[in-house]
Amino acid sequence: MEVIKFTFNPFMENTYILHDSGKGVIIDPGCYDPAEEQALIECIEDKSIQIEKILNTHGHIDHVLGNAFAKRQFDVPLWIGEHDATTLKSVEAYASSYGFQKYTPSIPDQSLKEGDEIKIGNRTLKVLFAPGHAPGHIAFYSAADGFIIGGDVLFQESIGRTDLPGGDFDTLMESIKTQFFTLPDETVVYSGHGGETTIGHEKLYNPFCKLV
Q: Which residues form the Metallo-beta-lactamase domain (predicted)?
């Protein structure tokens, strides 16, 4: 399964396309302006990917700015963790204060829970429940391909912030310990911001995780 990364919007958020055998999903579409939207469209058309759904790791503004656009453009459903629909809904109330005057709200079509599996072509993603940064935060793990789309849980030598509504430091550290650090050390972590890392690297060099 191929992972394609875009970095969108002023928050420098990572949007991912995952695809296999002509089928694909968009994870955390953060595209906001027309140029970002067009970049996403062109990639999908160039690679002849049939987008089947949109997935959100969580509902914070930087990860969902393109939800409504992507739903409309590709005529597909939006799936989010069962405990984070409220986080997504709240974005409409504060988007303009962050400068996103043209934000369009999106409504989830399906909820995801721990252990759910998502088919992409001949591959499968497993849903992991990893709260702490957001109350309903989830991650998507591919054992066969050795990677996790981790959202804002674990970054390269850093972790997600916990000072936003619904955030909790102890809960986040428990998610890292039980959901991320139980994966093989060679597992690649595709984070919501910044570059890729591995589980093994973070065990050794992440200063926050010395507490785990």
A: 12-193
Q: What is the rounded distance in angstroms from the CA atom of residue 63 to the CA atom of residue 137?
A: 12
Where in the chain are the domains?
Answer: 2-211
Q: What would the pLDDT profile of 27-52 be if each residue is shown by its tens digit?
A: 999 999 999 999 999 999 999 999 99
Calculate the dihedral angle through the C-alpha atoms of 164, 127, 2, 39, rounding to the nearest 10 degrees. -40
157, with CB counted inside 10 A (0-12, 13-18, 19+), is middle
51-101, pLDDT tens digit by residue?
999 999 999 999 999 999 999 999 999 999 999 999 999 999 999 999 999
Cα distances from 60 to residues 41, 75, 84, 179, 206, in angstroms, run: 23, 22, 9, 21, 24
Take residue 87 and report the two structure tokens written for it.
């986080």
The per-residue pLDDT for range 112-139, each reduced to its tens digit, is: 999 999 999 999 999 999 999 999 999 9
Reference 90, options 52, 134, 55; nearest CA is 134
- The CATH architecture of the domain made up of 2-211 is 4-Layer Sandwich (3.60)
